[in-house]
Design a protein that fits this description.
single chain, two-stranded antiparallel ribbon, mainly alpha
Length: about 230
């Protein structure tokens, strides 16, 4: 397979979707773990230090470039696969197989992916942009805080301010719900595309996939909820 075929053929697109999907799954694990430090009950000190490490250290910054590339490839290839599938069968099947066919979220990956993309844009606007680009498009003045004589961006306080708006909290919850359904199919699909598919591992992979698609989005959704109700 040539490099051109990797990005243009059906098999190539699916392989790119599989590899980038697993890469983004690993990112979600790191991201949810870092963000979970907001519950350390230390007024955001651990979270602010962790966020500073990710933004000021060379390796995470290099990986950040790879992350944006991974998002870009995953999104573009996803839209191309959806358009390709639509063009092959512009009219749906006459027979509705109901629950005996694929799950509705498996058939709606394009829509769910678009909703996740919109959620991602909102998330970048609220947090990544002000901390990385010096305040461009930020909705609040990003403050700083000092720990042991060293100054840090106070992203914990930024989260507090953003999540005082109930509309934003609801949008984040809906975004996490879209992510959950997207992962419910995407987790298993990514591994199966790369050949991890046999009777010995199917049940385990299915269980891990459903568990991941529930636990990770639920943890993300609980963050704005916790701030809004002043639980932290």
């Amino acid at each position: 397979m040539t490099w051109k075929q990797v990005f243009t053929s059906s098999i190539g697109k699916k392989l790119v979707m599989g590899f980038t999907g697993i890469f983004l799954i690993l990112f979600l694990i790191v991201h949810v773990g870092l963000n979970a430090t907001i519950w350390a009950n230390d007024d955001g000190e651990m979270f602010n230090k962790a966020a500073h490490f990710m933004g000021a250290t060379v390796v995470p910054r290099v990986l950040e470039v790879g992350l944006f590339l991974g998002f870009f490839l995953h999104i573009i290839q996803g839209f191309m696969l959806t358009a390709q599938n639509k063009s092959k069968r512009p009219v749906g099947y006459a027979v509705d197989y109901g629950n005996n066919g694929s799950k509705w979220y498996s058939r709606s990956m394009g829509i769910l992916g678009t909703l996740v993309l919109l959620f991602l844009i909102m998330h970048i606007y609220h947090f990544w942009t002000p901390s990385r680009l010096g305040g461009i498009a930020q909705i609040h003045e990003l403050t700083t805080v000092t720990y042991n004589g060293k100054e840090y961006h106070n992203l914990f306080n930024e989260m507090k301010l953003v999540f005082t708006n109930p509309l934003i909290v609801v949008l984040y919850i809906l975004g996490c719900l879209s992510l959950a359904y997207h992962l419910a199919h995407g987790f298993q699909s990514a591994f199966r595309t790369l050949g991890v598919h046999n009777k010995r591992y199917n049940n385990m992979l299915t269980g891990i996939g459903y568990g991941f698609s529930i636990i990770v989005p639920l943890a993300f959704a609980m963050m704005p909820v916790s701030f809004y109700f002043n639980w932290i």
